[in-house]
Design a protein that fits this description.
- By secondary structure, the chain is α+β, with helices and mostly antiparallel strands.
- It has 3 domains: 213 residues, no CATH class; 303 residues, no CATH class; 214 residues, no CATH class.
- Helix content is 49%, strand content 17%.
- The protein has 29 helices and 21 strands.
- The strands form 3 sheets. Strands 13, 14, 15, 16, 17, 18 and 19 form a 7-stranded mixed sheet that branches.
- Helix 1 runs antiparallel to helix 10.
- The protein starts with a helix and ends with a helix.
Length: 812
Amino acid sequence: MLSLGLTCFIFTFSLTEYWNNAESHFPNADRTLVIGSQWQLADGSASGGVNLPLSPHHLRGYLESDFPQLESVARVLFINQDTPVRTKNTTQRLRTFAADPEFLDIFNLPFAQGGYSNALQSPNSAVITHDTAIKLFGNINVIGQTITFNENADLTITGVLAPLPQPSHIGNTSSYSPINFELLVSRDVYENLVRRRTGGRDTTELPADWFNRVNTTYVLFPENSTFNTQQFSEQLSSFSLRHIPDNYRQIAEFNFNAIPVNNLMGMAIRDTIFPQLSAGSVQVVLLTLGTIVMIVACVNFTNLATARTATRANEIGVRKVVGAQPRHIIGQYFLEAGLLTTLAMVFAILLLFIAFPLIQNYAEISLDTLVSPGIIVRGALFIVVLGCITTITAGFYPAVVLSKIQPLSILNSGVFRGGSLLFSKVLAGIQFSIAAFLLVIITVIYQQNVNIKSAESEIDGSTLLVIENSPDITGLDQETLRQQLLQLPVVDSATTMEILPWTENPARMMLASSPAATAVEHSASVYVVGENFFNVFDIDIIAGRLFDPLRTEDIAAAGPAGVQQQNLVISATLTKELGYTSAQDVIGESVFIPGNVLGGTQARPYRVIGVVEDTTLSIASRFGSIPKVFLYNPELRFHIVRLSGSSHTSSIEAIDTLWETLVPNVAIKRRFLSEYFTDSFAGFRRITLGISTLAAVAWFISIVGLYAMATLIAKQRIREIAIRKVLGAERKDIALMLFKNFSTPVIIANFIACPFAYFASRSYLDLFNDSIDISPWPFILTIVASLTITSIATCGQTWKAASTSARQFMRT
């Protein structure tokens, strides 16, 4: 049992150690920081979410002017998940980032072809990964080759990257790496895209937008400099006062901070799985769970060892008779406990290596990195320290119990009680408190996962095909594509969206039922949708009407509100939050974005034209569980079509043929909506599997500990049971009495664990945009499961004690 507990702890420790060592292979990592930022509206009504390692475009210039001591400043910017890239022989969609040339100076990335010093210096230059080179050209000897980017720019390949060392926030081997590129282009390529969209102005010429955080901005400190990271962080606190205009600072409070680059990997994992957390990390959660399981194992070891002391009473009594002192007994026992702990460590490490293929797939880690010299040295020291702590923690009480054996009492009675019964019950209670805590959480997580999966099933994402179209790349009008898709016999219906379900977090809109500054504000997730959206997604209308493309007031306008009041559709939950008793009552009524949210005093009005049923369209949100608002816009890039028939192979072929006819030079980007759900749900599935595995181990260990307690109680109550049987107690009475003794600490443990489990479960559910309500059933299930396991684990000892004759008891 100790081996299982140590296995869980060593695994969680190794995983956190792996993530915490991110970027350590880069020589400049210890002197590289990333600028993080947050903003909060002055009235507290809205914020930019948690602290993120992202910053506005203009920040680089201000950093260079304010801190000339810095050796280098560089930005990296995500451009597109599926940028069309064409060569003479193929067309591919590549995940693309743009970077300042100094990025390659800060991170000495390994190049298979070319060199890092000037790879992004020239305009229209590009660096590609090894796999991308094979995909585009079939080999990596491609320096100087030209690729067509976005159908409007020819880029020259100046470098081919070798596989990037991991763990790192840079790379394409982990789904958690935020800078996960296949194509890295020079910054001027992005600026040219901005010029085409803004009538000739790039980010240096446009007014600074301090809310638009899209760059990862790195700063590199010089070696052996008197200017250090602490001084930089202190001066950064007043940075916004020097550079952000008054009109911005009147609207919101902006904060900038410095983040060590090796923290980025952990932050990315946190934001993927727990997007609301502003502090803490997944590493802390996992290590805490691993520690909990190891505590259960140590408690179990103590309980078993205490119960076993009864079998060693005669041995210890004889040793004391021949002159052994308590310190000798304690020393002997600690030596034995140390040997057992060492053996458990060996088994734990062997078990980890045997299970590593599964662990590697589960956690996305590399064995090569885990067995690097640095980690091996730290791991060896950790194993030694852990072994000593485990030996002392688990062996202290049994050693003390053995050292207090009185030889005379053993020889007179022939019975040794084997330690305090109350202490044994407390140990069993601790184990079951932890096990009950984990079981409640597992049950809640399972219920929430079922809730999310049922929402995806209701949408039936396996029949919804997503086709991405960016007119500035393809030249294909959105309405033309929609009409052409609807003419295909394989398409039942079609719509468009700005943000797909299960992918990015939607924006948040603050609404009030009155334009007054004192009106109560309510948060809602905003979904911008196209024509026929609710029908395609099978979302029922409760009251009012849906969007009509022929009514201009239904079309959402960007920027300040126009003369005509705009219309929106809301979810049923928002109706109640706004104070209306029924959905029909809110139809035709106005709701308002408060003036303070807009940076002024005048509220922006919207008219509610429809109320639809609540539906789940995202998994987790930085804003928690809030209702939805729908706006209409006909020009959205994601087309979603519902396919007809049960076999979709021919349907996809028909759509591919249509696309090739309409856009022959750009590869189609299509994917089923269910695939987006699978990708987004993968992180939660890993967390569920990890917690479930740890909880199962904790339960198994607790069962063994309960058996030890049953053995101890049966031995300590031998004479009492004998007397009861002499006085006429029946077998069932003895069995019931013993079961009561066994189950009492288990029941108490469950009641102690329930409040902690409730608050932990509530914190977890608050991460989700649509969460379940916590019902009594997880707690009832845990208590029933605990009592059932108690009866199974102790039935043998109970029945044996109840069945033994009184004469045999009196002889012992």
